[in-house]
Amino acid sequence: MPFRADHITHFKTLESLRPPRPARVFGWMLLMGMAASIAFLLFVPWVQTSTGMGQVIALDPRDRVQNITALVPGRVEQWYVTDGELVKKGDPIARIADNDPELLSRLRAERAQADAEIAATQQAMAVAQRDVGRMQQLYAEGLSPRRDLELAQIKVADYGAKVAKSLADRNRLDININRQSVQIVRAPRTGRVLRILGGDNATMVKEGDIIATFAPEQAVRVVELYVDGRDVPLIYPGRPVRLEFEGWPAIQFSGWPSVAVGMFDGQVRAIDVSASPNGLFRVLVEQKTGARPWPQEPFVRLGAKVRGWVMMDTVSTGYELWRLLNDFPLQYPAGALDQQTGQSTSYGTASGSGKDGGNAK
């Protein structure tokens, strides 16, 4: 017999416990909210990300901050620049003087003496060579013993050895003169002197000592991000990256990059094949072609901190929530091609352990 609403009158206790109308409305709202949440988790897409921290660096090693060193030992006699000064390629930075102010003149005098010795030895060797010719003629005519001819030849060889030694000594003097002549340290490229580390005339410097730091201007910049090792197998050149620069206002919605505000686009340029000393892997990110350009100096300088999100595959929100609750790695798409071995795999997720570096924040 089907149940009808009037049958409840036969159950007095049940009729007395009938919930009020607001409670029934709340129950229906709760039921509809649960249904909407389940539909949201099943059908709303989520873009998985691998989060990393890093900084802005110059792509060309020559454009990075570099040290300017002393070319010769001595003392800094004069500075031509100050901290923060902009210089062009070849502009003088400092002049280094030797402790002996007459060193260059003495080296030149020694070189002149070496030239005179070489000329005298070469002249003596020419005379000895003529003696060898005469001895050969006399020996051929039987008027001179063979020993005299051999002694003349030995004398020519001795003069040749002396000439070679004198030339080597003169070359060493030339090297010393050239080194002492290059006493003015010049800017290697157009850039800015960041900091002067040398002292005054009382401070001695050795060859190779750092006297200033220098940063070139207009460098081609990239971003280096450090990501978790479990995410590296899923990162390859060309992956899109969203970047948040230090001091640049931005709001990031991980999983829904289209609603992020103040973010800049990039793409993966290269990935290190080995881990860094901090245990993470370095990923180089370059500016994406056709996207909004990155902030230029002075808003974002070399060395500025950057937070980045490498965009991975799109999954359902429910799967991502389940992955985070179980601390699983990012999804490894079925049929993906292993970049290292070239073998096709069909795993649902990448295997690994430890804390996931791609958790959505």
Indicate the structural class.
alpha+beta
Number of beta-strand segments: 14
Helix/strand order, N-terminal first: HHEEEEEHHEEEEEEEEEH
Helix content: 25-40%
Strand content: 15-25%
Numbering strands along the chain, what is their spatial order in the largest sheet? 1-10-13-12-11-14
- Provide the residue-averaged pLDDT: 76
Q: What's the architecture of the largest domain in CATH terms?
A: Beta Barrel
Biggest beta sheet attributes: 6 strands, antiparallel, barrel
Radius of gyration: 40 Å
Number of domains: 3
* CATH fold label of the largest domain: Elongation Factor Tu (Ef-tu), domain 3
Calculate the terminal CA-CA distance, rounded to whole Å: 57 Å
CATH class of the largest domain: Mainly Beta
- Report the uncertain regions: 335-361
Annotated CATH homologous superfamily of the largest domain: Efflux pump adaptor protein, beta barrel domain
Described by the principal axes of the CA atoms, the overall outline is elongated
List key phrases describing it.
361 residues; 3 domains; Elongation Factor Tu (Ef-tu), domain 3; elongated; OB fold (Dihydrolipoamide Acetyltransferase, E2P); four-stranded antiparallel β-sheet; Helix Hairpins; disordered C terminus; 14 strands; alpha+beta
